[in-house]
Amino acid sequence: MELKKFVSSIDYDVKLAKYDIFGSIAHTKMLAKCKIIPQSDAKKIINGLNSILKDFESGKIKFTGEDIHTSIETELKKRTGDVAGKMHTARSRNDQVLLAERLYLKDEIKIIVEKIDKAISVIKKVARKNLSVIMPGFTHLQNAQPVLFSHWFLSYGWMLKRDRERFLDCYKRVDVMPLGSAAFAGTEFPINRDFVAKELGFSKISESSVDTVSDRDFLIEFLFDCSLLSMHLSRFAEEIIIWSSQQFGFIKLSEQFTTGSSIMPQKKNPDFAELVRGKTGRIYGNLVSLLTVMKGLPLSYNRDMQEDKEPLFDSVETIKNMLDVSSGMINTVKINSEKMLSSCENGFIFATDIADYLTSKRMPFRTAHNIVGKIVNYCSKNKKSFNNLSIVEWKKFSAKFEKSVFDVLDFRKSVEKRKSNGGTSLSSVKQQLKKL
């Protein structure tokens, strides 16, 4: 086994290249401003770093060292000579790596929030387009009560809104400038950490040098937020898979988001939705991976922490892809409103409405609930629906039933009665759309 390969991180931490350079430029400017190194040396270092960044972004240079930070410094020495060594004054690899990670994550959180916004936007678009469509609402995956499809669909928008808030809140913990903590005890040089923070766009600096180099809380919090978001996307994907099945037929997915079977030519499989569902486990694994790495580490820095990058980078790319695919599926889905409405006829979906009807006639709800349960049993044994019952049959269960009970057996009226804030009536759903 090659021992150098075992400790190397260059294969994946190359993602931090530009952020390491940004950090080094800001640090070098500060060293010159504080007269820790001469302005002429700082200029050479900064020019060298800018040339490395330009060549890296154009593909003219490939880093091959143990890690990206060492590789950049080695390349800088080739271009500027021994003056490159002054760049590392008053800092350590420990706070240098953290700086690059925090800069990287700040950018990625902004991108993820933009993708969440897009997903919410397409959810609202589909909900508006199908605002009055009625479908059966489910508990335990069984017909429960009629609801507006737009109400059901928007529930995922509210989940994503909470995810958006979590990522923005996480950003506050990421937006802390660690440089100046050095190895773990700070530095004897008269540095200006606030200057570096301002140069790099950080809102604050870290307060404890020991805590700073030991801290991966911000990464764990981010990975948790990714896990929760992926769970929501997975639930949505599961709904899409079920709804697009022949047994349901509520929706039709675009061919762009389905694949054929290798043996059954008639099939169109919801593979993209299934992969969204499947990749959630991978994101969970990344969270557990870093939690496990950190669970028994003594202060301050330990090399174990190098293992924070692969789960971070993998979760970032995976969650962005999941959001893109989910937005695409939602944006191109076709709704079968007739099938949704006809499915409301399965089961005894008006049971709660009938119980509410009796309750409105001053009967205790628990008594009404018990009576309706008996009516359901009667209908099941006699292969009848509520609509097939005569008023005589209704009155066998309670004298409070009148012909007005038949008005209850209307999907649109059932939906429109639920005008409570957050309910499924059209007016309520329109308010939800505005707020979302």
Fourth CATH level, the homologous superfamily of the largest domain: Fumarase/aspartase (Central domain)
Total tally of structural domains: 3
Described by the principal axes of the CA atoms, the overall outline is elongated
- The CATH architecture of the largest domain is Up-down Bundle
CATH topology value of the largest domain: Fumarase C, Chain A, domain 2
What Rg do the Cα atoms give?
A: 30 Å
Strand order of the largest sheet: 1-2
Number of strands: 8
Distance between the termini: 55 Å
What's the mean pLDDT score?
Answer: 94
Sheet/helix structural class: mainly alpha
* Series of H and E elements: HHHHHHEEHEHEHHEEEHHEHHHHHHH
Which tags fit this structure?
19 helices, mainly alpha, single chain, 8 strands, Fumarase C, Chain B, domain 1, Fumarase C, Chain A, domain 2, 436 residues
Q: What does the secondary structure layout of this molecule look like, with pairings?
A:
Blueprint lengths: L2 H5 L2 H4 L3 H17 L5 H19 L10 H13 L12 H37 L4 E6 L2 E7 H26 L1 E2 L15 H8 L3 E2 L3 H6 L2 H27 L7 E2 L6 E2 L7 E2 L1 H24 L14 H24 L1 E2 L1 H7 L7 H9 L5 H17 L9 H7 L7 H4 L2 H6 L9 H10 L1
Parallel strand pairs: 3-4
Antiparallel strand pairs: 1-2, 5-8, 6-7
Helix pairs in contact: 3-4, 3-6, 3-8, 4-5, 6-7, 6-12, 7-10, 10-11, 10-12, 11-12, 14-15
